[in-house]
Amino acid sequence: MNAPTLSARGVSSLAIDATASADELEPEQALARALELAGVTEPLPRPQVATTRNRTITRRGVLWLGQTCNLRCYFCYFLDRIESREHPEHPFMSLDKAKEICKTLVDVYGNNAIDIQGGEPTIWYAILDLVRYCHEIGLEPTLITNALVLENLDKCKAYKEAGIRDFLVSVHGLGEVHDRVVQLSGAHVRQMKALANLRKVGIPYRFNCVLSKPVVSQLPQIAELAVKTGALVVNFLAFNPFEDQGNGGRRSSNNVPRYSELRDSLNRALDVLDAAGVEANVRYYPLCMVEERHRKSMYNFQQLSYDHHEWDYASWSWTGQQPQRMKQGPVSPTLPLTGQRLAWKTRRMREGIARLRVVGPAFLRAEKTIGRLGDRMRGRDALYRENARVRSELHCGYVYSSECQRCDLKAICDGFHGDYAAMFGTGEAVAVHCGGKVADPLHFIAAQDKIVENGAP
Looking at the 3D structure of the chain, how many domains does it have? Predict the structure, then answer.
């Protein structure tokens, strides 16, 4: 197939939509070809893993090394930053700065695992040194990757020696669909070779799949690929306009599926994974849009904190700030969770006060002290639930429909992303009635068997 060509700035010269090209195989054919490329002639034995139904707050952190990448996935949250070399978050940071952030995650936030991402972390000059360092300080490292570099077997061996925990591989389609979505011809072939290499070396891997419109018909086959190649987990992520995707018009009905368009294919994919005992997680998708049997796999902001493969809200609030995502400058002071709703609403006023030479430093110290005291006075679960509301309501503009108001699950469901509601409305919502209002975010996910790695979450 011919992938969309890139302009001088790297921006795709062709609009991405769901229209199949002449080179696109039927889903079952695409799966057969993918398995052949991945070196799987018959289903592999399932990896032996420990699981738990105990739900505690995650201790996993996240680090963005810089928005430099070797692909141009059209839905990328950071596409503007990846395209612009002048953006302060585009260049990769130094190894020393990355180590400082990782040490803070351990010492201040108590994190014991980390997702390292870029852009594309495998093309960063010091990635093996950072993996080794994280492993040494008890911050078990995962790389979120497109896996192109991992087609080299020696690279995989080097990661194994450095102490990598696992890879989270971005599988955004099979065959031509994946290549079209990531805008590079041959990307799927290289990714399947990488999966074969990871199995040879003995490095576990999981899948991330963004639910963009071109991939909808292939979701059951991606689930089968995970089962037959030995992926430990599959995450399905609704296509939401975080970060740069919120800036003007990349989302349209040509590339974003309605929640109802996804429903049948997603439920079938979840059935495949459930039957095989493979952990599945669906992010940012209304609870009413899946069959009841699959609500144990639904993770909106109210549930994310209880997924040990997701990020700790406390440390995420800190590493998500620009000083921790750019090459230049020192890291910023760490943040408490208390008061983030008020802080978000008053951020411009607070930024103005902080810039004042005389009172600014004292204001920042007092704010931090008050926040720390508030964290200690309130229960941890309550703090994280409040922060979940900040993320859904204030950061993403989630809204509820009239059906949502009647739904027994409203208190544990975010509803409809604000951008999605502006595009499609909220008419797809169907009130769920289950004999009483559900207020516990663990109500469904407590029935899910989740992987426990290395004896601890």
Answer: 1
